[in-house]
């Protein structure tokens, strides 16, 4: 990552914020959007991205020369993109595309970047990351070592078989990153989509609804992938997964910080205008204190994001730090969103504002890229290792 300095990054962030507030937010009432669906429809995605392209804010975290903003600069840009659930979709900073672009940019060959990365950066294609597997099959979820999907070499190709679950954006995606297990260990492949060997069994009905294509159960039946479309070498898949997942966890924190900030703005406006029992809601301590707690936790979450971003920018993989940030930020933003719903009462649980959707989306965020409890367990293991290492022999 080369970075461009804080002032230009701040200018990009300001342009993104203005675009989301002025252009994207009015689309939240678009009749094409269903409150409980499988994400915004494809024609709406194309329409929003055309407007972002015209405004010069499409894929704002990747510069025209292909270089990537630093993680600290990326935070400045991704937070305002999240001010609307449609914002990351419109400006092309959403998951899983943002993480997939990062990974391909880091480890893809020149040929693979031109073929798979270029259309993603241009906003002309969406992507999917095929790692998680159905629990009913005993497959990989929070424990990727349980991966059942197999890959075996066959001449100039690898042949992949297995099933995947909760694959975000698979429906409508043009680029796929598929993880499978060889005799040497985990492997990662870039594939063109759609492919008849990759079949969507069903798109799940889930609590969240902001990601195009929703979340699918996938069957992979004798998928043939040319050898040169493997990322790295056989057995290096987990290493590349960590290259992707540490920044991706942090990117989730950035985007949903923007959404929680917007929910707090809406709840604040409601509390400052709505009267009950002879005075404004905000003048009741029960409400005023909740807004104060929101302000504190939003700032704490911002500081945690920036701290972890600095570690990643300094060259550390930051697996431990990104786990800490994922836990702290997701749980804090959940509390913020919950307070916003409570402050607004019946209006807060209705679709009249996006507060209800933000609550649902952030609830799912506590599971994305590893549930809170898995990250805490991982951190506890590190605490134990560090303690034992420090003991005299």
From TrEMBL:
This is Acyl-CoA dehydrogenase. One of its GO terms (cellular component) is cytoplasm. One of its GO terms (molecular function) is acyl-CoA dehydrogenase activity. GO terms for biological process: fatty acid beta-oxidation using acyl-CoA dehydrogenase. Its cofactor is FAD. InterPro entries: Acyl-CoA_dehydrogenase, Acyl-CoA_Oxase/DH_mid-dom, Acyl-CoA_Oxase/DH_mid-dom_sf, AcylCo_DH-like_C, AcylCo_DH/oxidase_C, AcylCoA_DH/ox_N_sf, AcylCoA_DH/oxidase_NM_dom_sf. Residues 128-205 form the Acyl-CoA oxidase/dehydrogenase middle domain. The keyword Oxidoreductase applies. PANTHER family: ACYL-COA DEHYDROGENASE FAMILY MEMBER 11 (PTHR48083:SF13), MEDIUM-CHAIN SPECIFIC ACYL-COA DEHYDROGENASE, MITOCHONDRIAL-RELATED (PTHR48083). Belongs to the acyl-CoA dehydrogenase family. Residues 235-382 form the Acyl-CoA dehydrogenase/oxidase C-terminal domain. Keywords: FAD, Flavoprotein, Oxidoreductase.
């Amino acid at each position: 990552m080369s970075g461009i300095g804080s002032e230009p990054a701040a200018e990009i962030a300001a342009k993104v914020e203005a675009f989301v507030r002025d252009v994207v937010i009015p689309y939240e009432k678009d009749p094409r959007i269903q409150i409980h669906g499988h994400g915004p429809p494809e024609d709406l995605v194309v329409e929003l991205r055309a407007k972002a392209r015209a405004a010069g804010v499409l894929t704002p975290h990747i510069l025209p020369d292909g270089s990537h903003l630093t993680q600290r600069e990326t935070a400045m840009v991704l937070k305002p993109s999240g001010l609307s659930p449609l914002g990351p979709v419109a400006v092309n900073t959403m998951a899983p595309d943002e993480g997939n672009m990062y990974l391909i940019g880091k480890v893809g060959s020149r040929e693979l970047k031109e073929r798979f990365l270029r259309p993603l950066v241009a906003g002309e294609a969406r992507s999917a990351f095929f790692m998680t597997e159905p629990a009913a099959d005993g497959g990989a979820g929070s424990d990727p070592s349980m991966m059942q999907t197999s890959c075996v070499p066959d001449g100039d190709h690898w042949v992949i078989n297995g099933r995947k679950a909760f694959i975000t954006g698979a429906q409508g995606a043009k680029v796929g990153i598929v993880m499978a297990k060889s005799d040497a260990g985990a492997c990662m492949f870039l594939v063109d989509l759609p492919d008849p060997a990759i079949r969507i069994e069903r798109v799940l009905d889930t609590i969240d609804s902001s990601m195009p294509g929703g979340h699918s159960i996938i069957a992979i039946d004798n998928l043939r992938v040319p050898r040169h479309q493997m990322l790295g070498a056989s057995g290096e898949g987990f290493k590349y997964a960590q290259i992707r997942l540490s920044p991706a966890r942090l990117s989730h924190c950035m985007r949903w910080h923007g959404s929680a900030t917007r929910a707090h703005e809406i709840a604040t406006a409601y509390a400052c205008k709505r009267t009950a029992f002879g005075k404004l809601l905000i003048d009741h301590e029960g409400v005023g204190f909740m807004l104060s707690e929101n302000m504190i936790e939003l700032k704490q979450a911002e500081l945690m994001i920036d701290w972890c971003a600095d570690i990643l920018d300094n060259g550390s993989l930051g697996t431990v730090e990104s786990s800490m940030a994922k836990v702290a930020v997701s749980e804090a933003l959940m509390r913020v969103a919950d307070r916003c719903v409570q402050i607004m009462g019946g209006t807060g649980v209705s679709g009249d504002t996006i507060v209800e959707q933000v609550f649902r989306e952030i609830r799912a965020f506590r599971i994305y890229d590893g549930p809170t409890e898995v990250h805490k367990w991982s951190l506890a293991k590190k605490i134990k290792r560090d303690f034992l290492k420090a003991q005299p022999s």
